[in-house]
Amino acid sequence: MLERLQPELRESVLLAVVVEDCKGLNGICQVNHQFDEICKDPVFWQSALRAKGWMPDWSAPSSPGGMTPRAYFEMVCTMNKRHQKALLALRRDTTTIEDSTFANCTSLALTHLPPHLTTIENFAFAKCTSLALTHLPPHLTTIENFAFAKCTSLALTHLPPNLTAIEERAFWGCPSLALTHLPPNLTTIKYAAFRDCTSLALTHLPPHLTTIEWGAFRDCTSLALTHLPANLTTIEAFAFEECGQLRGGAFEVAVLAINNYAFIGYF
To answer: Is residue 210 domain-resident?
Structure first.
């Protein structure tokens, strides 16, 4: 029995268990309190990650993926093989998260991503309901269609300043998204990009914005714009449907094309 081993041998035995069965280690730590001292030690979990070959090179060993070592270990352990392989393939020099890489990975709970990412492709993190990113990499320039759709725990407060493209439904159905502003160089808010982002409380939009497409902010019930950009020329149908917090003076701009249904539910 493990509990009969000398304390100095217990960690070695637990690490041997790691190599064979990550879920077995989780079980031991959850039910056998004689191992509490080891199981509560972050350094042990760093060793466990190294023993499995799971320690990422793109974040500090004390905070893999922005998580505690134990939380990261348990997350990887519960993933299916496809998602686990995709996560372990990430490197410090990774620049692209490809189409559907982590789609429907409900256990993915990273708080940050590799630092040199420039592109997050279609559906890359769609329906990752535990994803808890606190920020996105500074060099990110493109977020493609449905990239973060239905990421219900995503609570970002800002986006990278060099971001130039947020594609269709990129953040659709992210009720925890709490952006205070959008990147300054955006010229278009694409189709339903922020639809159903009920915590989105923006008070202004980027200065060079020219087009707000169909349903871009539909059902963003906390949106609190006080004005629209001077260069805005087009607001498509349902762009601000059910955005009841908008201020009356927000629309004193020379918009050339406003669809009949752009503000349905506002007036």
So the answer is: no
